[in-house]
Amino acid sequence: MDAIQQLSSGLDTIWVVLTAAMILLMEGGFALLEAGFVRQKNAVSIIMKVFVDISFGALIFYFFGFALMYGKDAGGLIGTSGFFMGGDLTHISLSISHETYWLFQCAFVIAVISIVSGAVAERINFRAYILYTIAMTGIIYPIAGHWVWAVNGWLGKLGMVDFAGSAVIHALGGFSALAAALIIRPRIGKFSPDGTANIVPPSNLPLASVGAFILWFGWFGFNSGSTLSATNTSIGHIAVTTMLAAAAGSATCILFTMMRYRKADPPMVINGALAGLVGITAGCAFVSDVAAIIIGAICGIAMVYATEFLESKGIDDPVGAFPVHGISGSIGTIAVGLFAQPDAIKKGTAGLFYGGGIELLGVQALGLIIVSLWGFLLTWGFLKLIKLIIPLRVSRDEELVGLDVGIHGVPAYSQEEGFIDLGQLKSRK
């Protein structure tokens, strides 16, 4: 390796490690967003689940998740090498080391499980959540990711395009979240006997807003970092489309909720920005700036309707995980087949609106259906299996008193300002 190659490889390594750290910081965003959306008595439980995501997710992905996702295979279905980051990984040809690549992908897998955690907030058994985290990070996500992103993945070979994960991460996570919400049932008091939804006020919207801003920041690492190269000239364009889609999602929700509810709805606006970010993730490198705005705006409006639809069907999703990730991830995946600019993906390929025909659109739709069904059905199956071992849901008393005290033995916010030594007070008199 000559000096220029060494310099390029060094820059790429710095870039990938830096963007991986940005994505990992998004866990702080998830923690603040979800803690702000749920009731105060359940804030600690949110934080504990995020620690499960990071710690168990990283270890399981190191032990065997990465191998199943990126290991060498013969049929395009599942990897068979790379367990404990050992064995044959020579088929992964990159300018960065395999360990650096693992770190970046590890940040992705942690984000996937964090999507599901919000849909089951305030009522899931902590031990059951740990077991499900192992299933998601070790089996469900890695196998679906292999189909799309691995060297010989069968959906990738068909031509499916998902630059940073609208389908593999967000649609998969969103439909998994839907399955989990259906199985675990609504929170006590969320719906009246006649089926009407009751408002459960968020405990701290400023906190949730800060969480959203951190996620927005981390998304630049999510999307731009997926170039895996510090010298890729598309980094700037990717960052711009990411910014515009998020802004369009948020702005659209502000205007749309003002018209629909006669006031700008803060939780909807927060989720509108996230919906735009989710929607642009698949095509951020392949669509124009204007297309990014259109995608973000559509995702913002669709998220509002999806949130209302879930409530009308008696499905309790406290943070809007399915509307934000499942619906917007689906829109973003399909949008590639519509808005991909000519030759942006590869020479001779374009979206339907740019004269590319329906081939790419058809592959995107097929891949989306496969990945979404995989997430939904595998989550359903694993949760049913876990239910045979331990309860999926906390007891009624634990839910009413709050998971913070009921499960973790400590409230998020203490009402005491400190301890007072009565003996010292008496001695001063």
From TrEMBL:
GO terms for biological process: ammonium homeostasis. The chain crosses the membrane at residues 14-38, 50-70, 101-121, 128-151, 163-184, 205-222, 234-256, 268-286, 292-310, 322-340, 360-383. NCBIfam families: amt (TIGR00836). GO terms for molecular function: ammonium channel activity. This is Ammonium transporter. One of its GO terms (cellular component) is plasma membrane. The keyword Glycoprotein does not apply. Keywords: Ammonia transport, Membrane, Transmembrane, Transmembrane helix, Transport. PANTHER family: AMMONIUM TRANSPORTER. Belongs to the ammonia transporter channel (TC 1.A.11.2) family. InterPro entries: Ammonium/urea_transptr (IPR029020), Ammonium_transpt (IPR001905), NH4_transpt_AmtB-like_dom (IPR024041). It is found in: Cell membrane; Membrane. It comes from the Bacteria. Residues 15-413 form the Ammonium transporter AmtB-like domain. The keyword Transmembrane helix applies. It is a multi-pass membrane protein.
